[in-house]
């Protein structure tokens, strides 16, 4: 009836789409990395990997992220430090280095973290959708709102690393393609299970 508002959807009513969207997105992520292989070319092999590992071990670098050349935040002589940094930057190489903790790689731990990541994102998407969409909303309406929200959540931050931290633009656009896949899986799940 015109003028009547549809009842709101509680966040608790969306537990199943949250859970399944996370599971489907995790499966989509697994397919991206194990079957589609479109990220394989994102990672280049260092020509003399063993020598590089030796140098990094000798440098005593622990797990963390490093940028080189690095500008000291508060140098005693700012002008001289800036000039030195600019010369080293021009000479190169320049980059960002991420180092993990050595030892055995724990795939179950990392996969568990990915599932948790998808669960958290799906929860916040459900929060937005529960305020934006009424009970009984049409599949397409749910797909549009949830899909756009999911795409922004998964895809919008991808560009920062290419702008500032030397990630290849190809890699960024492929990550955005991944985000589109996760957004469609999430939107389809919510549209399918939206409370009627």
Overall geometric form: elongated
Give the number of helices: 7
Number-wise, the strands total 2
Largest sheet: 2 strands, antiparallel
Mean pLDDT: 93
Q: Which range best describes the helical content: under 10%, 10-25%, 25-40%, 40-55%, 55-70% or over 70%?
A: 55-70%
Distance between the termini: 16 Å
User: How many distinct domains?
Assistant: 2
Q: Looking across the biggest beta sheet, what order are the strands in?
A: 1-2
Structural overview:
The chain is mostly helical. The chain has two domains: 11-43 and 105-193, no CATH class; 64-99, no CATH class. 62% of the residues lie in helices and 5% in strands. It contains seven helices and two strands; from the N terminus they run H-H-E-H-E-H-H-H-H. It has helices at 15-36, 49-59, 78-91, 107-132, 139-155, 158-164, 169-193; strands at 64-68, 95-99. The chain has a two-stranded antiparallel sheet. The longest helix is centred in the middle third of the chain and has 26 residues, at 107-132.
Topology summary:
Elements: H1 15-36, H2 49-59, E1 64-68, H3 78-91, E2 95-99, H4 107-132, H5 139-155, H6 158-164, H7 169-193
Antiparallel strand pairs: 1-2
Helix pairs in contact: 1-4, 1-7, 4-5, 5-7, 6-7
Structure at a glance:
The protein is mostly helical and 196 residues long. The chain has helices at residues 15-36, 49-59, 78-91, 107-132, 139-155, 158-164, 169-193, and strands at residues 64-68, 95-99. It has a two-stranded antiparallel sheet.
Name the features.
196 residues, mainly alpha, 2 domains, 62% helix
């Amino acid at each position: 009836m015109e003028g009547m508002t549809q009842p709101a959807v509680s966040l608790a009513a969306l537990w199943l789409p949250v859970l399944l969207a996370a599971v489907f997105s995790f499966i989509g992520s697994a397919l991206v990395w194990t079957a589609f292989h479109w990220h394989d070319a994102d990672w280049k092999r260092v020509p003399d990997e063993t020598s590089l590992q030796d140098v990094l071990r000798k440098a005593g670098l622990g797990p963390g992220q490093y940028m080189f050349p690095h500008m000291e935040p508060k140098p005693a002589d700012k002008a001289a430090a800036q000039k030195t940094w600019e010369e080293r930057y021009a000479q190169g190489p320049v980059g960002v280095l991420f180092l993990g903790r050595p030892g055995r790689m724990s795939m179950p731990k990392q996969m568990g973290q990915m599932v948790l990541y998808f669960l958290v994102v799906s929860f916040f998407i459900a929060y937005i959708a529960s305020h934006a969409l009424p009970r009984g909303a049409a599949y397409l309406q749910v797909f549009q709102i949830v899909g756009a929200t999911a795409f922004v959540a998964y895809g919008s931050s991808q560009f920062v690393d290419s702008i500032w931290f030397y990630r290849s633009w190809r890699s960024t656009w492929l990550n955005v393609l991944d985000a589109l896949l996760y957004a469609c899986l999430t939107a389809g799940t919510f549209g399918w299970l939206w409370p009627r």
